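in:
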């Protein structure tokens, strides 16, 4: 006699520890196998892009902190970079170096948070503690630099809010070899573990064609063999002054995305090492910017490489002190679109593994 099963509708979230925010996935399951899924977003929507139409350009900067709240420095920068491009502003060299240093520190902090929480999601406790120990040091650097630990509001149109305090650059110089040593221990602790490999290898796999068709970027794109990093391919700020590699894998699975983010920490350390050595001994941290910013009429789109992929800012200006229209390309939102395709036919245990490998931040999904 055949066993008769009935499809079950199950809500994962919006309050679930592995969604890392108020995000919901409605899944239809047949036994343990997912037959279809529907990501439901909007629980964290704050209307940032619409609010920006009634804010001056400088007033918008703190709102960008709240989108990808574990990568606020890069969010700050993409807005400032778009305005500066439209205005044709020249940024002082010292400010550019400070921007690169804080953005690469932010990339490391973001990847450490992802590494620790991802492994916690799939059942490993110790890596979470080590990751947060080393991320805490970066948060201390940011606190010393700008007085905040999460939402920094540090970038300014034309430069940065403040110069680095005395001895701050030396602390960054000392942090680089320290974290390099820790990465060796991370690798020995996790990367060869049989259970870990079994959970990730061959899971959540897609092709380069799928990645391009879905508009994926960052590690989600580079895990399929597509070597594309805006710091290299469309250099902005002073990234063309630094030697670093773009990690690429070809399998397109959860393990490939894991390896890329792990390798990117080392590449960011390379950039930091060069930036502190080249750091100007003196100079201004703000360019010549009008007291009241009136951006010339026109429109601009700029994209930069955030820890999650390409974050873009599109501004339409009518020549006033506020944007006529502002739109962000949010990598968490775009990368999430492939989730239903990846979950179809997978088991419930792999749902968490796949979702975590995409590395979304819900504030950026909802904006």
């Amino acid at each position: 006699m055949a066993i008769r099963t009935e499809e079950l509708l199950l809500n994962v979230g919006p309050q679930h520890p592995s969604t890392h925010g108020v995000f919901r996935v409605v899944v239809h399951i047949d036994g343990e196998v997912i037959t279809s899924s529907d990501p439901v977003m909007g629980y964290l929507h704050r209307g940032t892009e619409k609010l920006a139409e009634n804010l001056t350009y400088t007033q918008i900067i703190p709102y960008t902190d709240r989108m990808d709240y574990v990568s606020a420095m890069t969010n700050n920068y993409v807005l400032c970079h778009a305005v500066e491009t439209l205005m044709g502003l020249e940024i002082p060299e010292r400010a550019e170096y400070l921007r690169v240093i804080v953005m690469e520190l932010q990339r490391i902090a973001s990847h450490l948070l992802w590494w620790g929480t991802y492994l916690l999601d799939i059942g490993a406790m110790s890596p979470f503690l080590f990751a947060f120990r080393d991320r805490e040091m970066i948060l201390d650097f940011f606190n010393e630099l700008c007085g905040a630990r999460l939402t920094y509001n540090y970038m300014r149109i034309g430069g940065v809010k403040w110069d680095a305090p005395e001895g701050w650059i030396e602390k960054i110089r000392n942090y680089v070899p320290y974290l390099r040593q820790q990465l060796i221990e991370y690798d020995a602790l996790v990367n060869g573990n049989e259970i870990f490999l079994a959970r990730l290898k061959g899971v959540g796999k897609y092709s380069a064609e799928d990645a391009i068709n879905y508009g994926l970027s960052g590690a989600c794109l580079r895990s399929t063999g597509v070597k594309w990093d805006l710091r290299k391919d469309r250099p902005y700020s002073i990234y063309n002054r630094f030697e670093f590699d773009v990690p690429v894998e070809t399998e397109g699975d959860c393990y490939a995305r894991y390896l890329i983010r792990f390798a990117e920490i080392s590449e960011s350390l390379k950039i930091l090492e060069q930036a502190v050595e080249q750091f100007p001994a003196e100079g201004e941290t703000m360019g010549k910017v009008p007291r009241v910013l009136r951006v010339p009429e026109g429109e601009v789109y700029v994209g930069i490489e955030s820890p999650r992929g390409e974050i873009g800012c599109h501004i339409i200006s009518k020549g006033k002190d506020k944007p006529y229209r502002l739109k962000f390309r949010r990598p968490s939102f775009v990368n999430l679109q492939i989730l239903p395709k990846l979950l179809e036919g997978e088991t419930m245990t792999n749902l968490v593994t796949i979702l975590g490998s995409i590395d979304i931040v819900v504030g950026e999904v909802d904006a």
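note: The CA atoms of residues 95 and 285 lie 4 Å apart.
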